[in-house]
Design goal:
The structure holds two protein chains of two kinds. Helices cover 42% and strands 34% of the residues of chain A. Chain A is of the alpha/beta class. Chain A has a single domain (2-99), classed as STAS domain (Transcription Regulator spoIIAA), CATH 3.30.750. In chain A, strands 1, 2, 3, 4, 5 and 6 form a six-stranded mixed sheet that branches. In chain A, helix 1 runs parallel beside helix 2. By secondary structure, chain B is of the alpha+beta class. A five-stranded antiparallel sheet of chain B has the order 1-2-3-5-4, covered by helices on one side. In chain B, a hairpin with a 2-residue loop joins strand 4 (117-123) and strand 5 (126-134). The longest helix of chain B has 22 residues, at 31-52. Chain B is globular. At the A-B interface, strand 4, helix 2 and helix 3 of A face helix 1, helix 2 and helix 3 of B.
Chain lengths: 101, 137
């Protein structure tokens, strides 16, 4: 189960995924992002309500990072401990900009 | 030991993780470890769904067993698909940048890194993949 909240203000998009970003749900996030890339300069993921992320979710984040490397910035906020460990072991903590409180 | 058998399709992953969650919650598994096991179930079951039965579909059986001293969750995946030993997969280079990264191979790597043990055998036409994780507080 995944709910995806979005808030778009001109060139800025804040995405708040809630639930589980896994094999089944990751395509939903991918679709939301694709609809928003045009004119996007600032992409923010607020992960406060995200329980976990699997490799399918990591692939969506990697694709988003590649797009934003070309056209703006991307940050990931408020990850839980389980997600932090997944970012650590996969090297994603180096690829993504993870902001801590 | 608790067991469930389902058609190996991606649409059933949620039911598989829900089944595992129920057993783990009953065993008092800490949330972080439960989420890590859920991720492992997602990775392995989605692999079976996508690759085990290239010419049609088949089933996958999942067994969960909790053992004591130390309290450990053992999850076993059994399918009758083509032989596939994920332990032999190449490890991805996790030091590469976003641009250089390859897309595949991350799932099993994640499982290896977050579980305490992983073993594979092919017996009587079945792939048997077992993962275990200490679930003490």
């Amino acid at each position: 189960m995944l709910k995806i909240g979005t808030e778009r203000n001109d060139g800025k998009l804040t995405v708040t995924p809630e639930g589980r970003l896994d094999t089944t749900t990751s395509p939903e996030l991918e679709a939301v992002l694709k609809d928003n890339y045009e004119g996007l300069q600032e992409l923010v993921f607020d992960m406060a309500a995200l329980e976990y992320i699997s490799s399918a979710g990591l692939r969506v984040l990697l694709a988003a990072q590649r797009v934003m490397n070309k056209q703006g910035t991307m940050v990931v906020r408020n990850i839980n401990e389980a997600i932090e460990e997944i970012f650590e072991v996969t090297g994603f903590s180096e690829i993504l900009t993870v902001e801590k409180e | 030991m608790k067991e469930i058998t389902m058609e190996a399709v991606v649409a059933n992953i949620e039911k598989m993780t829900a089944f595992v969650d129920e057993v783990l919650e009953e065993a008092g598994c800490p949330l972080k470890k439960q989420l890590q096991i859920d991720v492992a179930v997602d990775e392995i079951f989605s692999n079976i769904s996508k690759y085990a039965y290239p010419e049609g579909t088949g089933t996958a059986t999942l067994q969960v067993e909790i053992t004591e001293d130390p309290r450990t969750a053992e999850v076993t995946f059994i399918d009758s698909g083509i032989p596939f030993d994920p332990m032999k997969e190449m490890e991805p280079d996790v030091t590469l940048s976003a641009e250089e990264r390859k897309i595949g191979g991350l799932g099993i790597y994640l499982v290896k890194k977050t579980m305490d043990g992983m073993s594979y055998e092919y017996v009587d036409g079945k792939n048997i993949l077992r993962i275990c994780k200490n679930i003490d507080e």
